[in-house]
């Protein structure tokens, strides 16, 4: 198991937009939506029907989606859903708005390094252990990337670049430890 | 160390007043891929040169397959380098006047192989590295990534036990670099060749089985594995 969550590409917050995006090209049944979603966005953990229908209910209430016909028979699966104009606008806004650059482990690592220095523990050991863990995850991701298809490669590369950024920060921090130790002890 | 194909113990090496290695120990097993990481100037290339017998350390020993390199006569040491070791550097290791095919065949020709035999083997290695289409081109007429794969083919054509790669993708863009790394590690693993992969990039080191980190001429080993 990887220490990083790459199982579900789409965060909980954006299932809504993922479904909207899938509806934009054509109207679909709930189960079709679920299958497309799983095909595009999940690795191991499929989206459950409950989440599909609760998300659709929310989209209906918000006027971003409408029912586009009910076929003969019974059950929720008979309904087709289509995106509305408001839905297209909402989707477009979301697509063009950059995501907030997330802060990864720096905060926690910073706290650990400072606490190590304060308590007289070896701060380089904290950094080394983190690097070892990061590199192990990077090896697993690289292997997975090389055994998989293009989608795997893109997903793994995203994670790899983030881990690489963490490692650069760890390396830089390692070379600033003496300076940091002085500051920490002076205050 | 048990099972080590190549092992260095307490290497010291200085250039004038610059201490490049300050007591480095290292070992690699047959078929293993080990990344040697560390910031620029930390002593990675010097370590690689000592491990491969290109440089003699001031102190310490390097043992390959039971032979201590420092005790071998020069002629035997350079023979060992040609038969058991392969080398890939950042760039500039191919002869620009020869075709890629001739470049890959060259080590075999120098070892006395007939032209036909050498070129047949060369074609096979170019294919394995996915650059068969460069056979008739000269290195300056190929891309950087293709050149590096040709260089890997040339390094492996003699069937070495250890491949020394010093920043082999350092001059390439990420995508070409990835392709070279994948081809190089796949082919080496398939043929049981160990790789000492020197790099300052973690994305490159991630192609190895494990890594060691050189800092200020020493190898730091994390105690919290
Ligand atoms: N032939 C040389 N003459 C003088 N100094 C050298 C020579 N080779 C390396 N050095 C010095 O030794 C140190 C380690 O260099 P090197 O092994 O090339 O590091 P790296 O490969 O990690 O960048 C550096 O300070 C470098 O300037
Ligand atoms: Mg170097």
UniProtKB/TrEMBL annotation, chain A:
This is Transcriptional regulator PadR-like family protein. InterPro entries: Tscrpt_reg_PadR_N, WH-like_DNA-bd_sf, WH_DNA-bd_sf. PANTHER family: NEGATIVE TRANSCRIPTION REGULATOR PADR, TRANSCRIPTIONAL REGULATOR YQJI. Pfam families: PadR (PF03551). Residues 19-92 form the Transcription regulator PadR N-terminal domain.
TrEMBL record, chain B:
Coiled coil: none annotated. Keywords: ATP-binding, Nucleotide-binding, Transport. Residues 6-224 form the ABC transporter domain. Pfam families: ABC_tran (PF00005). It comes from the Bacteria. One of its GO terms (molecular function) is ATP hydrolysis activity. GO terms for cellular component: plasma membrane. This is Putative ABC transport system ATP-binding protein.
């Amino acid at each position: 198991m990887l220490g990083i969550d790459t199982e579900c590409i789409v965060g909980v917050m954006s299932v809504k937009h993922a479904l909207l995006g899938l509806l934009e090209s054509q109207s679909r049944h709930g189960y079709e939506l679920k299958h497309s979603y799983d095909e595009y966005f999940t690795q191991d953990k499929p989206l459950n029907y409950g989440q599909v229908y609760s998300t659709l209910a929310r989209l209906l209430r918000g006027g971003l989606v409408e029912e586009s016909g009910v076929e003969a028979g019974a059950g929720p699966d008979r309904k087709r859903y289509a995106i509305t104009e408001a839905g297209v606008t909402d989707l477009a806004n979301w697509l063009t708005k950059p995501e907030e650059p997330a802060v990864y482990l720096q905060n926690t690592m910073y706290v650990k390094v400072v606490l190590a220095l304060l308590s007289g523990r070896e701060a380089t050991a904290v950094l080394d252990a983190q690097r070892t863990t990061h590199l192990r995850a990077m090896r697993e991701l690289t292997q997975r990337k090389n055994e998989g298809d293009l989608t795997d490669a893109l997903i793994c590369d995203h994670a790899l670049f983030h881990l690489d950024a963490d490692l650069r920060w760890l390396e830089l921090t390692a070379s600033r430890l003496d300076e940091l130790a002085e500051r920490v002890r002076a205050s | 160390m048990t099972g080590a194909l190549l092992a260095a113990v307490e290497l010291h090496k200085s250039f004038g007043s610059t201490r490049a290695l300050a007591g480095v120990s290292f070992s690699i097993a047959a078929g293993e891929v080990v990344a040697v990481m560390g910031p620029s100037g930390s002593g990675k290339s010097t370590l690689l040169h000592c491990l491969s017998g290109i440089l003699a350390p001031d102190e310490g020993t390097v043992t390959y397959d039971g032979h201590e390199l420092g005790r071998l006569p020069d002629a035997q040491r350079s023979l060992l380098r040609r038969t058991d070791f392969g080398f890939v550097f950042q760039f500039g290791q191919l002869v620009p006047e020869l075709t890629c095919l001739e470049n890959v065949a060259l080590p075999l020709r120098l070892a006395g192989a007939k032209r036909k035999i050498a070129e047949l083997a060369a074609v096979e290695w170019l294919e394995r590295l996915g650059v068969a289409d460069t056979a008739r081109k000269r290195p300056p007429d190929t891309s950087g990534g293709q050149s590096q794969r040709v260089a890997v083919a040339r390094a492996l054509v003699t069937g070495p036990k250890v491949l020394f790669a010093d920043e082999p993708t350092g001059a390439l863009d990420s995508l070409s670099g990835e392709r070279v790394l994948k081809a190089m590690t796949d082919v080496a693993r398939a043929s049981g060749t160990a790789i000492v992969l020197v790099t300052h990039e973690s994305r490159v080191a991630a192609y190895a089985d494990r890594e060691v980190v050189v800092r200020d001429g020493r190898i730091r080993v994390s105690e919290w594995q």
